[in-house]
Amino acid sequence: MPKLSVAVPHKLAEEEVVQRLQNRFDELKAEHGHQLQGFEGQWEGNRLSCTFSTLGINVRAEVTIEPSQVTIDTELPLMAMMFKGAIQQQIRNELDQVLA
After folding, report:
1. What is the pTM of this model?
2. Residue 81, SS3?
């Protein structure tokens, strides 16, 4: 599967970034839980591994918090490739808001 990677810089303490991302993931599950099936996420230090299904597409992603940036890496199913640019932009916009 083709890979998708988005990196967004930040100037926050890593612990603050972890807390903000944890809060936002909880909000997203509450807001969009009806569209996300089987959402599971596990934090290990500054890395979140998560899986979920939406619209029949299985998604697996890794979120890595580094001292100066947050990186999200995932693989896109071929059927989602036509939306790659829009998906990257949506992720970037979301991270920009969380890290502001």
Report:
1. 0.85
2. helix
* Gap between the Cα atoms of 83 and 59, Å rounded: 14
Task: Write the DSSP string, 13-76.
Answer: -HHHHHHHHHHHHHHHHHHHTTT-EEEEEEEETTEEEEEEEETTEEEEEEEEE-SSEEEEEEE-
CA-based end-to-end distance of the chain: 32
The model's pLDDT over 7-45, given as tens digits with 9 standing for 90+, comes to 999 999 999 999 999 999 889 888 877 777 887 888 898
| Cβ atoms within 10 Å, residue 29 | 13
Distance CA 52, CA 37 (A): 6
Lowest mean pLDDT among 10-14, 22-26, 79-83, 84-88: 79-83
